[in-house]
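Deadline looming. Please check this record:
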Amino acid sequence: MYPLFRSPYLSLFVWILSVSICCAGTAFIATAAEQPQAALSHQQQAIEISKVLRCPMATNQSLFESQAPIAHELKAQIFTMLDQGYSRNDILDFMVERYGEKIRYQPEFKAATLALWLGPVLLLVLGVGLCLALISRKPKSTS
């Protein structure tokens, strides 16, 4: 049987690309299926807000996951602000104002974060283009 790709590196690249696209699609579907925030109780809202904020002390952990003392204080602050009638966006804006944009796991889409949002898409398009160019390239004849 004639292999689809002549290079094992190209086969590995296409396999990794396929798995990445499947994982990204799964994450997109999971995000799209979330409940609307208006119907949630204060506790559920606080949990959802703490999941989208990064702990300032713990590396790569959300406020919800972190056991650092600052995380407990910030979760209490979120509960207090919800009890006072603040909305989710008000709380997120307060946290960003206090700790900077780095506290968000997903930064806002603006000029300063354009590379974070469009970089992966650009790399995907370049990778697919490279694969197509390598596949469609004709072998040189040695006659």
